[in-house]
Amino acid sequence: MAALADHEPDIHKPWKILPTEKKIEPGVEVPIRIEDVRDKIIKDLQDNIRVEQQYEKERKEFEAEEAKNRQKQLEQTHAILSQNWTAYIKNMLKLEEEENWIRYMTCDGLPNPGLLSDMNTFLFLWSLEDELATMDTIEEKCRVIIHLLNKLDKIIRFSTLITKEYVTECETIAAQLRLKLQRWIDLACYHMLRNIETNMIRENTKTTRYVRTTNKAICCVWAPITLPIGMKRQVMERDRPSLFPGVPEKCIEIEFKEIKLRIKMPSDMDCHCMAIRGLWLAYDHYSIGSNSYWMSKLPEIVDLWNPTLGLFEYSIKEYDEKIRIGEEQAEGRRLRLEEKKAILEKLEYPSVPRIDKRKRARKPKKSSPKDHQTEFESMLTSILPSKLSELLPYLPTPNEIILEKEEKAMSESKKLLFTRCEKTEVNLRKYRILGGIFRVDILYQPPQPKDLGKDTYLTTLELPKEPKFMSFYKPYETPQSDPDSERTPEIIEAEMKALEEAMDALVLLTLKLPDSIFWFEPPVIAHWLPEKRIWSTKDIHDIKYNEEKQTIAFRTGRLGIHGLAGYKYANLPFQSWELKPEKKKSGCVHIGVILTITAAMVQAEFLIREDQVCLKSFTGITSTPLEKILGEYFELEYLIELLTAVTTGWM
After folding, report:
1. Are 527 and 535 in contact (CB under 8 A)?
2. pLDDT of residue 534
């Protein structure tokens, strides 16, 4: 049987009759040579038919024996794996019950993330507290909401006894929490801007500034003070000609040192009765809503290629499929064998050509080699079909059919897994937003209180009582020159001036890259488009990266949410990995194993003891962001969360 598997004859390939050339020995006539060729063809065809009949019989016996042995071995392996999996599930259920009990008994005033009714009640009660949103409550709200989001994410990813409907409800609640948190921050800024003179700090007689720093958010606000100017003076100022015509007015330039951001507004914006807000958030609650963030789901293209099947079930199903295909092909193989036997019979017993009686009396001519060759070819023509299409086509084996199905399913799966993005869209399967996100917004100042004297103030309320954002969008188009015109110095200078004017109409942002991120290459500047729910580079222009100072400057035609996208797989492919036992130390009860991973740019060493893992060392680049977790033991899932938080700058 082993020899049958190692030396499988090519009996299923298309069989052709090709007269082979032989060396003609001196003195041997041509007819003898043609007879030798015919005899060789007959012998090869007889051997082929005999081997095919024998192989078909032995193949079925061999495959049945092989399937029996494979299923016996896999059944033992399946039993061991099932036993281990059952123990793992029991342990997970026990840990989940303990965690649910701890959540239930925790008296921290927060809802139980595992109970949808509690979370919905929490959202409803929170919606009634919009008037309580202040800058002093931002830190606590960020802490609470991010804590609940982490709990919900853990339930969605690691819980075992949950349904798809429950997961959908949890994802909906998580999305509402993210929206409510951003709305709370916006309302806090609105309530702060309701009284600029009291809540903000004066820089000078014309501008004020406010800064609130927390672990998860830094909010910086700059606002000009609206001075009481009479209507007559406003008209005179508007109609007064410029003292220096042709000289552009001074642009508003602001620096928020707390978030390491410098903003330069276009010269045509004076921000009268407005405020500029720079907001840095340690978390990215936008990428999760993009389609390119998630891997595409695969339908069941072919039952045989089903990832839910175990190796044991897959082997049984594959063997049953082979038997089914073999039974369907039995008639086809019988017809092909009969076809070969018919050709063999015609070769062994060729039909004798009819001799004309009138030609018997003639003296036979001496035959030449060319005549014998023509006679042999005519014999083959009479035996074989006139057209190749009349022969039965090649019938693939069951193994070849199953392999072709799997390759086709894999090819279709790759097409479905391919993430299709717009031309300027940032593919979140390839990139990731690092270092949090930063927002630059222009808000209209709400009506300020009027001092009427005797501790009496009058404030005009505009409904709804929420912040109003200025819509800023300036598309940039490169000035086009006439290709037929002559490129004189004056034309070139005019084009350069038009280019500068087009660039000056955009907002210039200069950002210092976060020190907590490993920047292997310059980041991609992206802007969040809420209407499409994608990160885009469409309105980002004139990017300048300074590697020494670790700063990046760019011009944008949109204000709003911006992020720094880094290439996810900068460390791939891994160069090598090594797993070895830990050296025994005095006083050490449990000895673990050391896993060393060498990537393209860094090397990480993990120490595993029982059910906990620690990051032992990290070389290849500065490990300053990892100092808090180096040498500390954590559960695997929690360590993954910490490492993710470090790489994205959320710690």
Report:
1. yes
2. 94
